[in-house]
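Lecture 7 notes: from sequence to structure.

We start with a single chain of 134 residues. Read the sequence below before looking at the structure.
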Amino acid sequence: QVGDRTVRALARPTLRHVRVCGWGVTDGGVAVLAQHGAGLQHLDLSGTQVTDASLSVVATKCPNLHHLVVGGRLVTVGVTETVVTLRNVSDVSVSLVARHCADLQHLDLSGTQVTDVGLSLVAHCCRRLRVLLL
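Now the structure, written as tokens:
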């Protein structure tokens, strides 16, 4: 399973497309990735332990994002599938994403705690948005 150590080792400004899935990746790993992510255009953090803290760093350090996935991961328990919610992703970081990543075309916020407040900023700031998953 991928963890923070691996993400830190791979973080570099030449990366354009990153998909990091797994509960082993925390705010620390995501923040290091974002610090080197000025060129990132596609970032998939589904199934990680991302919170407002690291998503705020992503927003300010990765302004060229076109595709951002922070939705909770799908877990199968028996025959039932459930989306694990990300209670620590809220309007705070989503508002920063909207303000700093205006070129977003795809945004997945499924399982987060975003409300109409954050979504109204997304609608106002992200004019190129084509896909929004809640």
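Residues 19 and 44 are 4 Å apart (CA to CA). Keep this in mind for problem set 3.
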